[in-house]
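Fold it.
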Amino acid sequence: MPAPMMDTYAPPEVVFDHGKGVRLFTAEGDSYLDCISGIAVNCLGHAHPKAVAALQGQASKLWHLSNMFKVPAGIDLAKKLTDNTFADRVFFTNSGAEAVECALKTARKYQFDNGNPQRYRIITFQGAFHGRTYGAINAGGNPAYLKGFGPAMEGFDQVEFGDLDATRNAISDETAAIIVEPVQGEGGVRAPEDAFLRGLRQLCDEHGLMLIYDEVQSGAGRTGKLFAHQWVEGAEPDIMAAAKGLGGGFPMGACLATEAAAQGMIVGTHGSTYGGGPLAMAVGNVVLDELISEGFLEGVVDVSNFMRQQLHGLMDRHSDKVVEVRGKGLLIGLKLKDGYNPKKLVGLARDRNLLIGAAGDNVSRMAPPLVLTKEDASEAIAILDDALGALQAD
């Protein structure tokens, strides 16, 4: 009898019972090397002892308050985020999509409060993914995600990712903001040139627009900086959405903003019943403390450089099937030649006890825990080598 759940996913038959570090285990004890980490979520791996202790400790004291009352751990976490980013203000959410929704509202409210109520349109980019809520799927603009959900929401203007001239031409007197992923995840693990992000910052400054970064997937240390845009000098945003790795596996997100951008988000303008709750804040503090601890991000850079070097060797060995190694840090994509299905490669890798994912633009995606070692990376490469050898064209 099928499970009484909506058929919005098609999971494989394997069922996991527990995890430790970069490994997942079935009840029977079969071990899998996890190189997708819940789609870039389990940044510290599975069952990290400090995160487990924080969650258990908080669970024995207080689970939920709502934002009717202060959560001291949330104030602490917000201070750590503002101390380590461009931001002055933080709003905690339950997910990346909610963080994006908050970011869009913040940008429009900024324009309204500054005497420009006609400025409501948001420039977005082809290949973007901003979440599955109604506003977020319209911002992403993927026809496959919009189909069947009524007319497209008015107010979004989509242009080619990485095309600064097209972005400039899309700006009108009604434009409020630009939203972009510094590294596209679902869209094919695409990282634009640094000059593109700097150019977006300049365009926003010239035209009085808000620059929004969606760092839901590329943030929380994923690229070797706390947030991916921090690799690019002169490209700081006004508003940023974060989530996924920020909670290390516990559901949480955040919308970060400068003082100026957040000035209109006053009492009554926005809310979240669960956002910033005691459990999420307890875990979030541990995760961020680990990410900003001495040497942690340098370790991410080191192992990601090693893995990329190995992947380029893999590409050379399978040049008939792999055309490009993409991404930044430990957000990695292998673009396959037309005729080779990345979902088939996912299955072949899983059959060999390696977990990877698929993305758009015919890309296989890896986003392993940030605690991955070079030995783990070598193991993953060896399995991928074998799986690519078995991959057949459609």
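The CA atoms of residues 123 and 157 lie 5 Å apart.
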